[in-house]
Task: structure prediction
Amino acid sequence: MNRSRSRYYWLYIPLSLMALFYLVPLYVMLVTGFKGFEEVSLQTMWSLPKTGIHFDNFTEAGTKLAPYFWNSLKMVIPAAIISSIVGSLNGYVLSKWKFKGADIIFPLILFGMFIPYQSILIPLVEFMRRINLYGTIPGLVLTHVIYGIPITTLTFRNYYATVPTELVEAARIDGAGLMGIYRYVLLPISIPSFVVVIIWQFTSAWNDYLFAVALTDPQHWPITVGLNNMAGSQIIAWNVQMAGSFLAALPTLLVYLFLGRYFLRGLMAGALKG
Amino acid sequence: MRLDKDKILSILLVMPSILAVMIFVYGFILWSGRVSLSQWKGLLPNYEWAGLQNYINLFNDPRFHIDVRNTFIFTVLFVFGSLILGLMLAVMLDQGLRGESFFRTVFLFPMAISYIVTGVVWRWLMNPAQGERMSGFNILFERLGLDFLINQWHTTPGWGIAFIAVPAIWQMSGYVMALYLGGLRSIPEPLREAARVDGATELKIYFHVILPLLRPITLSAMIILGHISLKVFDLIVAIAGKQVALDVPAVYMWQTTFDGYFFNRGASIGILLLLSVAVLVIPYLRYSLRSEAEL
Result:
């Protein structure tokens, strides 16, 4: 592309100012986190650590949040993996094996992506109680997998729709059946979509608060609930809260930094078009 | 014969998901609807018929009036704030400057973190304390000699909710930027060239050629942001806890149901939220899927 119109150098001024605005919370989290306990005060909130880098805040926040952090990992990893498998199979059938009524079913599934979960929360809690999964991590995993079906199905369906039907037909003529075509034609080229969906589900389950606070008991709280609880307590100092926030944000932040391209594709799938 | 077998197998493959959605989305909505028409207060389910009484009570409930007002203020500021900021950022990044991907990464990173983290950090940035305990932006403003900017943030009487839109815009405007940037990149260069040849200034090209072409993206962004703002919950809880001045339907629903055991009222709020989201989303889904089918 020929975009050599770089005469708008002055745009660096507003762009940099905006970048500052976006980075402010990150800056505060980090400078606070790296200060020693004796150096922390609200008065010097904005200044850099003066007596070198300390890890007091991170250590303290880490010890407090570690159990919740592990709970989150134990919940998020299976949720992301199961979701991607379910989404892939659904997307395959809904793009290459359209059955009668598929065009009615698909929008009905999609709508599930937009509902405010407040409208299903009471039955969900009741249901989890009745099947004895209330309070547990598997209950939360199940919830994320089920309410993730719309977005994961959509992502895979849109991706498989770009695979030429001739390819599927050719495999069929060669004697491949439903699972054979999936295994040998679609699965090998699905890696990027798996990455997109796994990242998406990882991020949304890691960042979820509503389901977590409604469905888990304190012993199984994931990081969002643990952090919010810590922030609401009067005993834990603000500097430890800042360090804790950074720790809670770290996994998804790393995913974003290293796999940003895939993250973006997940975001765009959620917007349906564009 | 084997084709038929595969056909059946394919349906069996998606059936669990379809059933799950039918139960967990539509079944549960109906169940909530039934609770909203019941007299269920307290820990034990009670499905005695109450008709529309719970809804009528809500419409006469001063706290719910506050919720509607707060949601309205928040939605307007959040949606338009994010749209304008996102569009500005996208247009600036579309000029082919060096370092574009750095700026894009910075503007979009808040999307990767939770509303809880955002809320915990911003509650210290927007700390309203004065004097000795002053902190966050207020103390920064004081240091910079911008005392007139010092304010009470989300504790401003009557308008606190407006300040909650600031971190919300911080979090979501990068997403809008990404949507617009995708749109801008799909506008063919010859179209701009043609306008330029006709003597249009860059500004005119944006207003008369490019912005009209971005209308579908604006619509998508408005609907996505709008439905997010109707159900805003985590961010408010993390910044301010559950106080009435900053109350919104999702917070009220939580408190009345799980702290107060008014399941009937909680379900009614849930259903009202669903209806308001459905009004936005259903036409949008129809429109999106129809234009997809035309491709």
About this structure: The longest helix of chain A spans residues 56-96. The two ends of chain A are 20 Å apart (CA to CA).
